[in-house]
Amino acid sequence: DDQQAITLYPDIPRLSSPSPILTDGRIEAVSRAVTRGVEVVASAVFVPQGARQFGFIYSVRIRILMPTETDYVSEEDRGFATCQLQSRHWEIANNSTGETNRVNGEGVIGMFPLLMEGGYIENGEECQGVFKYQSCSGRMERGGSFGGKMHFIPGSLESRTG
């Protein structure tokens, strides 16, 4: 199995003072997974939504790595020039209740980016750089976790390769 899961909200110790590592007092919560040269990077921010309700806002960035980057895999070795996001599966655990909500769906927020080295195509428009999207987990208690997987098709949804 050539898939990796990515944890959107890695465990980070709560600090009573600013982080000694970052000078601006923030702790950067980022998870990264690379499979066959496709990189997924996720980060999250915990946001109180009310006196007893909490949630996470998260950002996911996906791309095919470039030749000069660590973990790059050539088109020949990865078996495809492009790949397209088909689906995602999230598991949202609430440590207070012990419940886990599983969310499966096609694409992300209605989008199915087609990745290529140096950019992506979305809604017929070619874009340079990294495909980025933001969303939220909805209400979630403190102490929960949020992780999951994304499934990409070599080639495109209409024309599979590799």
Protein model, in words:
Helices cover 2% and strands 50% of the residues. It is built from 1 helix and 11 strands; from the N terminus they run ββββαβββββββ. Strands 1, 5, 6, 7, 8, 9 and 11 form a 7-stranded antiparallel beta sheet that branches. The two termini are 15 Å apart.
Produce the secondary structure layout.
Blueprint: E1 6-7, E2 30-35, E3 38-48, E4 54-64, H1 75-78, E5 82-94, E6 99-106, E7 114-116, E8 119-122, E9 125-128, E10 131-139, E11 145-154
Count of individual helical segments: 1
Largest sheet: 7 strands, antiparallel
Order of helices and strands: EEEEHEEEEEEE
Q: Calculate the mean pLDDT score and round it.
A: 79
Helix content: under 10%
C-alpha Rg (nearest Å): 17 Å
Distance between the termini: 15 Å
Low-confidence stretches: 9-23
Beta-strand percentage? Answer: over 45%
Derived structural class? mainly beta
Question: How many strand elements?
Answer: 11
Outline? elongated
Describe this protein with a few key phrases:
162 residues, mainly beta, 1 helix, 7-stranded antiparallel β-sheet, 2% helix, 50% strand
In short:
With 162 residues, this protein is mostly beta strands. 2% of the residues lie in helices and 50% in strands. A hairpin with a 2-residue loop joins β7 and β8.
